[in-house]
Amino acid sequence: MSTPTPTSTKGATATPAVGVTATATATGAPNPVLRVAPAPPAAAAAYFGGSLAFHADVSYVATALAAGGDPGFVVLDSRSTQSWDQGHVPGAVHLPTALIPGRAEQLLDRSVPVVTYCWGPGCNGATRAALALAELGFQVKEMLGGFEYWVREGFAFETREGRVRRPADPLTAPEDADDCGC
Question: What is the secondary structure of the chain as a DSSP string?
Answer without folding.
Answer: -PPP--S--TT----PPTT-PPPB-TTSSBPTTTSSPPPPHHHHHHHHHHHHHHEEEHHHHHHHHHT-S--SSEEEE-S-HHHHHH-B-TTPEE--GGGHHHHHHHH--TTS-EEEE-S-TT--HHHHHHHHHHHTT--EEEEETHHHHHHHTT--EEETTEEE--PPPTTTS-TT-SS---
